[in-house]
Amino acid sequence: MELHVGIDVGGTFTDIAINRADAGEMLLYKVPSTPGAPDQAIVQGLAAALGEYGLAAGDIQRLSHGTTVATNALIQRRAGKVAVVTTEGFADLIEIRRQARPRMYDVHLDHPPPLAPRHLRFGVAERRRADGVVHKPLDEAAVRALAPRLTAEEVDCVVVCFLHSYAFPEHEQRAVAILRECLPAKVHVIASSGVYPAFREYERFSTAVLNGALMPVMHDYLVRFTAGVAGLGIPADPKLSQSVGGLMSVAMTRELPIRSALSGPAAGVLGAAYRASNAGFGDVITLDVGGTSSDVSLLRDGCPREVQARDLAGFPLLLPTLDVNAVGAGGGSIAWVDIDGLMKVGPRSAGAEPGPACYGLGGTEATVTDANVVLGRLPDDALLGGRMPIQRALAERAVAALATRLGLDLHETALGMVRVASATIVKAIGTISIERGHNPADFSLFAFGGAGPLHASDVARALDIRTIVVPPHPGILCAEGLLGADVVADFVFSTLLALEDAATAVVERGRGELLTKAAQWFERERIEPAARRLAWNFRLRYRRQNFELSVPFAGGAFDLAACRQARAAFHQAHERAYGYASASEPVEFVSLQLKAIGVLPRPPLARLAPGRPGAAAGRRRAMFRLHEWHDTPVYRRQDLGCGQELAGPAIVEQLDTTSPIFPGDVARADEWGNLIIRLA
Question: For the residues 496-505, what does the mean pLDDT come to?
Fold first, then answer.
């Protein structure tokens, strides 16, 4: 027997998806997360899941894992102690930042303080010009002289960030070599050009510092995680999820832990893309609602969009990532009354400990989960197939306390909590759709996560979306998405030059360098030749523009014909993005990007077996609109037959989520096991 396992650690639950490759069967398991030590929930959950299904740990041939350790460490500022060595005169660059404020009209909100404080930022004499000419040689003696102070400060990592090292890394590499000779072996020493050698020094420096701050944190976590997995007798070499989608080895994660940040949502998007495409839905907006946050993304023709830079915990991150917008609205989000007397929901969350009030684990504040229990949309006896008891009285007490402060009745308050959370999600979707020229009404809403289907109808109606797709295992989709992910690595060659015929030699040299790096990576990751794929992109702009656009590149020799094709493709891309193009304007080359892909077999999706339509397993009172109670039939998801239709009001329950079908709406189970809800 061959088993493939995907594990996604969320703020409230740790999700485990086990695929039996020989039988085409997907097995699911959920356990409460252990925020203080996430690896504990993974190891304990894996052991429990294997025991429940009678499986052997030795049969696990692939183990993929998405983690929030890196993201949480930066948000909570529980990262390592970092020092920065930079070009003389630029020690304050990461604190000066750019002119933009975090929020334009909030004069009290400032950027977070740098992870490397002022007394741990050192300038040394060195300078290379933008054209590579050495204006001032590296003062190697000055670099050596820093070692005693860095040792005395007991730093965990030293990050070397020099100007123009994205194109000319020699000074950085030499400084790193010197510091590694002089500092204790336990101190990590890295170069910004070794993290992601892209143009724009502030963002590159920031990304390198973030990576350095995470190295000791992720190292300790990975030691515990790999030891726990090995202790279960699992032979598979674990892989971790990346923020750009795809997987990376434990060794690569130790070197580049920043690539594991924001990885959970990316895995969910990949899982949604695979499921949606198989069901015939190419243009979808994904809605992943968990216990703490909601993550949304837009897929056009089944493909998620990548962005080259974003913020993480208030710091700029210069790396390719999937375009996922996250907001603090989830099942555990706490409702509160602001100074203006209005109710707000989130971003503070009850998390896994103590969790919503209805869990009976000590939580007393009203959460969105409590509101759904009060409204009858969630069961008032137990979740997770009976493994998590629910206490309706505690949910009502928490919501009633909030209602008293607002001067509303219990059910008005509960419905208001759900609608406020949904409004936050609607705004997040507007950012990735309307603000980028897409009409949400042209898309289907793909709802997953433990609470995604609970909010899908409210969100879809607000955006004029008429179709909702709920996959067979919504609460496990991020873990399931890891099962279909490939191993990937991103490489970049950056230099600024006019994209004219004379540029062909420089770009061709860069293409050769990237091919060499990709080949080395393939060998290091033991990717078989038949499984190797390459995907290329240019980053181009008109001269004097601030930002660039991505243009696909076939990857062959960059000759005169390829250069002219790239210019023509850029004009077309600019026309699509901005509504105009200037063929007479000179085009500037910024970078050439290469994505190396090690293709892994994807588990086949199971089809829903033909069978008799399932009958309702019970009924309960539920409110879909204010003060309109319905005696609502409750169906078990596993009982639904292929093609079975349910007319709302109805509720569909399963281990990992609950899907309400509003009055007037119609749901149908398709051949892939998806629940397709058509809104009235």
Answer: 91
Q: How far is CA 108 from CA 101, 111, 268, 466, in A?
A: 10, 10, 35, 41
CATH code assigned to 487-598: 3.30.1490
- Tell me whether domains 75-219 and 263-330+421-482 share a fold: no
The three state secondary structure string of 103-168 is: CCCCCCCCCCCCCCCHHHEEEECCEECCCCCEEECCCHHHHHHCHHHHHHCCCCEEEEECCCCCCC
Instruction: Assess whether pLDDT exceeds 80 at residue 632.
Output: yes
Name the residue with tokens 């989960």: 369
d(CA 401, CA 376): 19
Higher pLDDT, 607 or 172: 172
Query: Where do we find the tokens 């609602």?
Result: 289
> Looking at the DSSP assignment, which residues form a beta bridge with residue 448?
288
To which H or E segment does residue 173 belong?
Answer: helix 170-182
- The answer regarding whether domain 263-330+421-482 maps to CATH 3.30.420.40 reads yes
Q: What residue segments make up the domains of the chain, in order of their start?
A: 75-219, 263-330+421-482, 333-418, 487-598, 618-678
The answer to whether the CB of 61 falls within 8 A of the CB of 4 is yes
User: In this model, does residue 523 exceed pLDDT 80?
Assistant: yes
Euclidean distance between CA atoms 453 and 446, whole angstroms: 9
Type of residue at 624: F
Return all residues near 249 (Cβ < 8 A) that are at least 6 apart: 237, 239, 240, 487, 525
d(CA 570, CA 587): 8
- In the block, tokens 């063929």 appear at 583
Side chain identity, residue 156: D
Instruction: Tally DSSP H helices, then E strands, for the chain.
Output: 17, 37
Q: Taking 80 as the threshold, does the pLDDT of residue 304 lie above it? A: yes
Q: Are 52 and 128 spatial neighbours (Cβ–Cβ below 8 Å)?
A: no
Closest CA to 335 of 420, 453, 450: 420
C-alpha pair distances (Å), 621 with each of 241, 393, 630: 41, 16, 5
CA distances from 489 to 213, 256, 316, 500, 519 (A): 21, 11, 20, 29, 11
The number of beta carbons lying within 10 Å of the beta carbon of residue 103 is: 9
613 or 552, greater pLDDT: 552
Q: Return the CATH fold of 75-219.
A: Rossmann fold (3.40.50)
Burial class (CB in 10 A: 0-12, 13-18, 19+), 443: buried
Euclidean distance between CA atoms 391 and 418, whole angstroms:
19
**Closest listed residue to residue 294, CA positions, set 485, 661, 10:** 10
